Amino acid sequence: MLSDDWTKSVHLQNDRSLEFHNEGQMHFRIRVPRFGRDLAYHSPSCDVLVGGASSEVYRLNIDQGRFMAPLQTQAKGVNVVKVNPAHQLFGLGTENGTVEFWDPRARTRIGVLEPQVGDTGRMEISALDFRGDGLSTAVGTSSGHVLLYDLRQAQPWQVKDQQFGLPIKSLQWVEPAVGAYSDDGAKVMSADSRIIKLWNANTGKLFTSIEPTNDINDVCRMPDSGLIFVAGECAEIQAYFVPQLGPAPQWAHFLENLTEEMEQKPQQTIYDDYKFVVRRELETLGLTHLIGSPVLKPYMHGFFVDLRLYERAKAIANPFAYDEYRVRQ
Fold first, then answer.
1. What is the mean predicted confidence (pLDDT) over 300-305?
2. Global model pTM greater than 0.85
């Protein structure tokens, strides 16, 4: 997004082109020298950063309408580009498995992070996200791991395995929202092509998981809300609502009513291996002394009794039932 709302946006296409859209139509189109993989917008300088199948990160200045000198990285390719919302530091996740940090004021590299997870071997950086505090950074790898770093330290304070061995496609810090049912600190929402996991950033404890029926391409959460949108290998954008993350947006307030109705609706228990009997039949079977015990489960105008107990009691109460059945036949 190039503006505070949805009216101005830039889109990276698979034919090496950037498309600029307003609220009504495509406004402008320009090609980049190499195929792109990710883009980000640096609002103070009006630069659109494009990383892709090249060691260079291209800078298109939309104020001057021309390409500026690119950022020359030490990697063969750049998979992800992020801008820190607190101090505007550039984060570049590379194909070589490193994260390069660049100062936008001097346009120089100020640090390189080299994540390592056990003996997984060579891995690429597939996802990256900065927290609003300016220091915490989440790094996702092609081996399916998420590492949480403090920019002042070279070692991660938390390592989370997604358990499927698939590249991390989306990472997002989830701050406790006003009005949320749960407030146990910041969470991280990580997603590969198969599952979305929300977990506590401090302890690594799983909060919840979402497993759509189709492969996942990207995940987006509405700010200060529990509404999550999932773009996958299907025609529709899938939506999920997690009330513990925050309230529903104003334009989707009906979700709150649906959640309340689901909480108030009693859960009906289905007894597959039980037989329903009324009190009269219970007296015939000689099981009235079991009323009030866990063996008999009251339901409506009778009781549920274990099917095996029912058949045994019936055989004892009427041992000639089979002979009478044969006579009737």
1. 84
2. no
